[in-house]
Amino acid sequence: MVRKIGILTSGGDAPGMNAAIRAVTRVALNNGIEMVGIHDGYKGLLEGNFEILQKNSVSDILDRGGTKLGSARLPEFKEKPVRDKCIENLVQNGIEALVVIGGDGSYRGALELTKQGINCIGLPGTIDNDISGTDYTIGFDTALHTCVEAVDKLRDTSSSHHRCSIVEVMGNHCGDLALYTAICCGAEMVITPETGYDEIEVLERLHYLDQTVNKSHAIIIVTEKIVDVEGLAKKVSQNTGFSGRATVLGHIQRGGSPTPNDRVLASRMGEKAVELLMDGIGGHCVGIIDNQITSLPIDEALQRPNTSRKKMYRLFENLM
Ligand code: ADP
Fold it and tell me: What is this structure's pTM?
């Protein structure tokens, strides 16, 4: 039976990571397992930046965004000699297993460590919802709330001024944040890696909404890294009856107090991670699929297609 578990957060931070740290720590301690927090992801693992966690070490963090443990990137972690040094640090401190909260890059690191004899469990922590093996990631719901709040405000002013608001949201090659925001806000269009982008189509559709449907405003939600939204806004002003305005929501989407849904999700997933390690399982990641907390081998999870996404695009189209 595992006696001491380490926990770290890696890659981009996300609201709800603290709730997951708290859950893992409390569940482990309640089962007689010692807990060690590792600061700054795999970098802290390499540098031996460790902290013993007691129950009160994780008090007052449940409602905080970001991560109490800090996060960092360490590209050298892909090299075995670097991981060997990390394992040496773990062994020296009696840490027998690890919970890694992060994205798919962090999962790959966790898998490598497991292959080298340290059982690791991955928890999906990112606002982008871009991790296979789970319907939702920790932080997505909070980011969605931020986006919806912002777009609702933009809609008020857009309709007063016959504007087309083009709103860029995060997502990192995954359109979920844009798609769900579009559904929540009744957007006229959504542009994501999954929909693709055709400028002429967008301008023609706006022209139609203006001339034929008599819309007082239009909202387009766009995933980052697809199109220059400022440039698109100018073209909208030049080629349609709407005045185009671009808004890039940026890093505000990464912050804020986690929503109740994210706190519950993080807590459920944290509990599952400890249960898996207590069962001697490593190299898995935790997910939520059809509202059931599940676990899958990391390599399998990273290849699993997301089947719920298609249904959400269909829903968006049906709500037009
Ligand atoms: P995320 O976990 O959010 O996807 P990254 O892709 O930046 O973020 O990965 C976070 C960290 O995980 C990297 O800095 C690196 O330390 C580690 N990592 C990423 N890919 C691998 C890999 N293939 N093998 C080992 N470690 C990896």
Answer: 0.95
Report the separation in Å between the CA atom of 113 and the middle of ligand 1, taken as the mean of its atom positions.
Answer: 12
Q: Which of 111, 158, 146 is nearest to 10 (CA)?
A: 111
Answer yes or no: are the C-beta atoms of 135 and 159 closer than 8 Å.
Answer: no
The alpha carbon of 79 and the centre of ligand 1 are apart by a number of angstroms equal to 11
- Compute the average pLDDT of residues 149-173: 91
Q: Atom 20 (ligand 1): residue with closest C-alpha? A: 105
Q: Is the CB of residue 140 below 6 angstroms from any atom belonging to ligand 1?
A: no
Q: Look up 128 and say whether it is catalytic.
A: yes
Tokens 């957007």 appear where?
Answer: 187
Domains of the chain, CATH where assigned = 4-139+258-304 (3.40.50.450), 141-255 (3.40.50.460)
Is residue 159's pLDDT more than 80?
no
- Condensed to tens digits (0 to 9), the pLDDT of residues 169-193 reads 999 899 999 999 999 999 999 999 9
Q: 55-79, pLDDT tens digit by residue? A: 999 999 999 999 999 999 999 999 9
CA distance 242 to 222: 17
Tokens of residue 4, six digits: 């001491």
Place of tokens 């926990």: 7
Structure tokens at 218: 């239009």
Q: What average pLDDT score do residues 27-48 get?
A: 98
CA angle 202, 208, 212 (to 5 degrees): 165
- pLDDT interval class at 265 (50, 70, 90): very high
Residue of 47, 79, 108 to test ligand 1 pocket, by largest number of atoms within 8 Å of CB: 108
